[in-house]
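Same chain as my last thread, 170 residues:
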Amino acid sequence: MTATPSTPLTTAELDHARRAVALAADAVDAGDEAFGSLLVGPDGTVLAEDRNRVHTAGDATAHPEIALARWAAANLDAATRAATTMVTSGEHCPMCSAAHAWVGLGPVLVVATGAQLGQWQREDGLDPSPVTALGIADVAPGVTVRGPVAELEADVRALHARVAGAARSS
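reply #2:
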C-alpha cells in the first residue's frame, strides 16, 4: 500500500471525501467506472471536480484525475498548484500519478487505495487491468498521499461492486 494512514480528517476534508464518492456514484449512474475527484485550493475551497468518463467518452484516458490535472495546468499558477490537494475516491493509476506530478499538484487524499481496489476487482472476478498497478508514490515519489478514509471505504466498495455486476451482466 502506498498511501499512509491518515491523521484524523477535519470536517471539511471528510466533506470533500464524501463529494469524491458522490462523484464516483454519478459516474456509475452514467455507466462509467466508479471514480470521482476534486481539487481543493489552499484556502479549502473546491476549485474543480470531475468524474470518470471512460465509457461515456469512449476514451480509456478519460479519468477525472487527468481532467483535473489539465484544468490545474491551464488555470492555476505553479505555487497554487503545489498547495492544492486532490481528493479522490480511489488512488491514482500510473497515468494519473504521472500527470499529477508533471503538473505539480500538491498532496492527494484517497478514500480507497489502489491495493484495496485491486483486491475488490479480484473478489468480483473482473479481468486485471492492462497496466501494472503502481501506487502514486511508486510513480511520483514526491507526492504526499493520505488515506484510506475508513468512514467511506464501504461506500466505495459498494460502487465498485455495482460496476462489477454491470460488467458481468453485459
